[in-house]
Design goal:
single chain, 110 residues, alpha+beta, three-stranded antiparallel β-sheet, Transposase
């Protein structure tokens, strides 16, 4: 390694070692606010899209239960499915909610 390359590498290390997580990552409140804004915008766009779809065709609804591997929590997801005028299958997640295991009923109970 030449002296110039060594000096550049040393300078680069000095520059990057001055960075820390607080200068690189946004504040958690900022992340939450942006997430809430993005969620609200997506809900609005989904509502507009579904109103348009429902004037042209029917929407099938499917459900799926799944468990996350990290916290072992069960979730129920509802998805809307339809075929566009161009014969393209389209689907959108309508909602996902945590499933409360205490509400489960065993088979045969009414």
């Amino acid at each position: 390694m030449s002296a110039v390359e060594e000096e550049l590498l040393t300078q680069q290390h000095r520059n990057t070692s001055l960075l820390n997580a607080t200068t690189l990552l946004p504040h958690p409140t900022t992340v939450c606010r942006h997430l809430a804004d993005a969620t609200s915008q997506q809900r609005t766009e989904l509502g507009i899209e579904l109103r348009s779809v429902l004037t042209q065709t029917c929407v099938g609804v499917t459900s799926d239960m799944w468990t996350d591997n990290y916290k072992k929590r069960a979730y129920l997801t509802i998805t809307g499915n339809w075929i566009t005028e161009q014969w393209i299958m389209s689907s959108r997640v309508l909602c996902t909610e945590e499933f409360n295991p205490s509400l489960r009923k065993t088979r045969g109970q009414h």
